[in-house]
Structure prediction request, 182 residues.
Amino acid sequence: MSARDKIREFFERNVGKIITTHEISQVAGIRDYQRRIRELRNDEGMQIKTHIDRHDLKPGQYVLETLQRIPVIGRGISPQLRTEILERNGFTCQLCGAGPGDLDPFNPNRKMRLNIDHIVPVSQGGSEDRENLRVLCSACNHGRSNIQTPSETALNILARIRRSPRSVQREIYEALKRSLGG
Ligand SMILES: [Zn+2]
Prediction:
């Protein structure tokens, strides 16, 4: 039985109960259990919640809310299509404007990742067509959007800047800093 199997079984035996990292590491017998939990969430669609999802949980606590699995999103998207959508959206979250490496506003120890989101979910018949795909940051992807939604104009400009070479981004940053007194 792999560590992942052990952790899955442990969660499924304790649906709705708070499970601690200590318990998980004991059950799994490994230190790198966090990657396994991510796999259970992302690859298998298990509804394991953390303190990021639920404010009644402390860091290091997990709850499997139900045995029901969420249909896994993004599995059918090829790496090429993923890159194409990322470039089209300028590496910018289409809801909050976050970019790769921005700090997660709900967890400053973590950096945001960019995901490919289905505008109409696969579970509701959404397709893998380009028009149904967009970039979302990990926070918005989990239904926690940012404090303020940027305007359409700001989103487009941010996307253009993020498509530009690093040196140009730096120039724009310096120019804005001069004019806005940052
Ligand atoms: Zn976002």
About this structure: DSSP finds seven helices and seven strands in the chain. The pocket of zinc ion is lined by residues 93, 95-96, 98, 136-137, 139-140, 146 (CB under 6 Å). The longest strand covers residues 107-111. The chain has a mean pLDDT of 87.
